[in-house]
Amino acid sequence: MPEPQVLDRPALPETTPHLDRVVAIARRRMRLNRALALGAPTLIGAGIGLIVWMVLGRLVLLPDAELAIWVAAGVAVVAALGVGMLTRIPARWAAWAADRWLSSRDRYATAVELLEQSRTAEVVLGPVAVAQVVDAEDAARGVKDLPDRPMVPSRRYATGAALLLVAAALGVLPNPQDDVRARRAAEEALVAEEAERLRETAEELREPGDPHREELAQQLEALAEELDGADIEAALDALAAERAELQQQLEDDLASQRTALNGLARELARQPLSSGDTVRSQLENLAAEAGSGQLSAEDAEALAQRLQELAEALQAGQPDLADDLREAAESLSSGDNAGAAAALGAASGSVGEALQHLDAQGATAAAEGATADAQQRLRQGQQNLDAQAQGQGQGQGQGQGQGQGQGQGQGQGQGQGQGQGQGQGQGQGQGQGQGQGQ
C-alpha cells in the first residue's frame, strides 16, 4: 500500500515588504486626501474672515493689523494642511483604503489584521490564514502606485480662492478710515513730542536736596506719562488741569517781591552798608559791627536813618525784611546795639528766606510755563491738522467739479458742432439738387 503524500504548507513570512509598501502608499494617499479636505473649508473660512475684517475696517476704525490678519489666515490654512498630513493612520485603515482603491476585495486588510494578531497577541495562524498572508504579499508585489488621483475638492478651493481675491481687492481699494488713522497717528506724534519736552523740563527743574523742585519734577513726569498714547483732546484736558493746579501755587505779588529784592541789591551795590559782596554778607557784617560796639553815635544815627529808608522802600514787596530793618533802625536810634545786631541778623535770615521763596516760585512758574507752552503748541498743531484736512477736501471737490465741467463742456460743444455741420451739409445738398433739376 503506497504511503500518503504530505503536501507542503506555506510558512508565514517573517517580513512582508510588498504588503508594507502598499499600506504605506495608501497611508500617504489618505493623509493627502485628509489635508486637502481640511484645507478647503479652512481656506473658505479665512477668505470670509478677511472680507469681514476689510468691510468692518471701512465702517469703523480698527487696529492697523491687516498684515497680521493675512498672516494669521495663511497660518490657519497651513496648519489645517499640516494636521491632515500628520494625523496618525493605523495600518488596518490604510489597508482597507488600498482594497477599495485597488478593488482587491479585502485582501490586504485581511492580511494586515492577521499579521497584527500574530505579532501582538502571539496567535499562531492556521494554514488558511498563512495562505491569505502569502497571497496578499504576492499580489502586492506588482503594485507601485494607486490608480486613482488624490481627491481634490476643486469647487471649494475655487470658492476659497475667489474669496481671497475679493479680500485682496478690498485691501487695495482706498479706505476712508486710513485718513482717520493717519490723523490719529499725527496727533499721537504731537502729544508724544510734548510729553518728551515735559520730561526734559522736569530734569532741568530737579535739584538734589530741594524737595519743592523734586515734587515739581515728579508732577511733570506723571503728566508726561498721562500724555503717552493720548489724543490731543485728552492731552489738552490733562495739561489744563495741571496748569490750573500750578497757577494756584503762584502768588500774585511775585513780581513786586522780586523787584524789591533786586532793588535792594542794586542799592547796596551802589552804597554798601558794610563790607561784603552780597546783601546777606553786608547785613551780617553790619550786625557784627553793631554787636561789638564799633559804631559811633553819629555812625549809628546815620545808619539808622539809612535802614529806615530801606525799610520804607521794601515795605510793599518784602514786608518781613522791612520790619527787621525798621526794628534795627529803632534799636540803633535808642542806643541798643545788641538789639540792632539781632534785628540785622534776622534781616539777613529774611533775605535768605525771600530768596528761597522766590526760587521756589520761579520753579513753579517754570513748570506752569511748560504746561502753557505745551497747550499752545498742541492747539496750533490741531489747527494745522484741521487746515490740512480742509485743504485736501476742497482740493478733491474742486478736482471733481473741474472734471465734470470740462466733460460737460466738451460734450455740449461737440454736439453743437456736429449738429451745425449736419445742418449745413443737408442745406447744401438740397440746394444743389434743386439747381440741377431746374
- Class from secondary-structure proportions: mainly alpha
Biggest beta sheet summary: none
Percent range for helical residues? over 70%
Measured by DSSP, the beta-strand proportion falls in: under 5%
Give the radius of gyration: 50 Å
Q: What is the overall pLDDT average?
A: 84
Question: How many strands in all?
Answer: 0
Distance between the termini: 143 Å
Low-confidence stretches: 1-7, 411-438
Count of helix runs: 14
The run of helices and strands is HHHHHHHHHHHHHH
Judging from the principal axes of the Cα atoms, what is the shape? elongated
Short descriptors:
438 residues, mainly alpha, 80% helix, elongated, disordered N terminus
Topology:
Layout: H1 17-59, H2 66-86, H3 91-102, H4 107-120, H5 127-140, H6 154-172, H7 176-205, H8 211-227, H9 232-249, H10 254-270, H11 279-291, H12 297-314, H13 319-333, H14 337-437
Helix pairs in contact: 1-2, 1-3, 1-5, 1-6, 3-4, 4-5, 7-8, 7-14, 8-9, 8-14, 9-14, 10-14, 11-14, 12-13, 13-14
